[in-house]
Each structure stands twice: as C-alpha cells, then as structure tokens.
Design a protein that fits this description.
The protein is of the alpha/beta class and about 290 residues long. It contains eleven helices and eight strands. It has a single domain, classed as 3-Layer(aba) Sandwich (Rossmann fold), CATH 3.40.50. Helix 7 links the parallel strand 5 and strand 6.
Amino acid sequence: MDISRYEDHGQFCSGHAACGGCVEALTMRVILNEIGPDAVGVVAPSCTAVILGGYPTSSARIPFIHGLIETAAAMGTGVKRGLAAQGKGDTTVVCFAGDGGTYDIGIQALSSAAERNEDILYVCFDNEGYMNTGGQKSSSTPHGAATGSTPLGKATVKKNLIEIMAAHRIPYIATASPSHLADLAAKVRKARAIRGMKVLIVVIPCLPGWGVADDSAVRVARLAVESGVFPLLEVEDGVTWRIASDKTRPIDAYLAGQKRYRHLSDGEREALQAEVDAGFARLKALEAINPG
C-alpha cells in the first residue's frame, strides 16, 4: 500500500505558524491540494486558525473566513448557500475545526448541518484536547490520557463522534491519518464528488500536548492506525461501513511514545488494550452488517 505519495499543487504556502514537526500543517497541505483553487474555507478558532494566519496574510491560496469556535458548520452552510445563489454551486466549501470545536463546542451547529444534509466538507483535526489553550481535556480525549485538566488521567472514554454522525445518515464520513497520505488524498477526492454533508476526522498527534518528539508525529500517527486505536474507515449513508486498516500490533508502542500515558499501571494499560480490542471488534461487526 502506497501510504505517502501525493501531488502538490501549491495550494498551501510555506512560512506558516505551525510548531516545527506539526503534522497538521502536512495534513492541511494534502487536503488543500486535493480540493483545488475553486473553494472557500471556514475555520474555527484553533491551531488551524493560527497556522492559516490572520488577514491580510494567509498560508492558504483559497480564501478563508475566520469565525467563532461553535459556528464552523453554520458558517460553512451560509457560504455554500450564498455561492449557490450566485450560480457557483460547484465551488467546494470546506470547514476546518479542532476536536474542541467539533466534539464539544461546535457539535450543535455540526449536528444541525448534518440533519439538513448541507453540501459542505467538514474536516476535524483531532488532536484529542484543547491544545491551543494549554492542553486541557476535551470529550475527544481518550480514556486514561493525562491533560492539563486531568493530570491523573481522563476517567471517561472518548466520545464516539463517528457513530453519532452516522446516526444522522449523512452521505459520507471518513477517518484519515497523516501517516497514510495517499489514503487521505483519496478520501478528500471522494468527498468532493459527493453532494451533501461530508465529515472527515484526521488524527493529529500534538507534539507538546501528547508529549512526543518533534520528529515523531507521523510515526505515532502510524502506530495509532496499526494498533487499532484510530482505524482508517469510511461510512456511507450511515449504514455501509468499510475498514481500510488492519489491527496488526498491540498498543504498547503507541502508548510508550507519549508522555500523557506514562503514569499508567500495567493493569490500566491492559484495560486500555481491552477497550481498543472491543472497539475494533465493534467496527468489524458494523462492517459485516451492510458490506459495500
């Protein structure tokens, strides 16, 4: 499987403000190059907004509107409808938000847009916490992970946003990783060709928030996929599930590469392994119900 190849078309510029080694910038580069120039972006307050930069400068070639953290999906809806009224219905509208602005603060607008099946592409850069404001926990933070607000480890499990969005029966939901760029690019191309609501969730290991080395984010993202912590999958119309990655290793190496899990006991690590195994088995069961 070719996991790294993609073609750059200059839609994302150098000189951005991402941390050195941040894979969110790499992911944005791939997504923007696949979307192309006929697009308008909306961004919620997040690391993404910092990376893009403020008016009148930007690291993206397409125009971006900066909004409130809870309004990305609502603003994307308005932009898309405005373009359609001007006869520009084929112009792609893409929303960029973090997990705080998606799983938590922005879920009302996201759910409403999904219920209406708005023709937008919503991208969540999931770094599993409020990393832009000090590394506090979000509802996307996994069970057991230490954060600024859960120093002894989060006591609850990660919110299952994929199944929540699948319950809305939107046309397309997918997960992606910066460790598998060809898969990411293919999913963006597929989403562009679909009318209606599309949601793409991308795992983004945060260097300071997760406590990983500056040159290790891609490796940690790959371990997340290979261990089944973050499987690559697609859901169409809320009912057809396809898993594009296998669970080929235990979670030990994934946990060991991050400071946020170093407080765990052997028993707690075993419990997390059991959670991951059960979650992956559930996905396989969903895939078997309505095979593509």
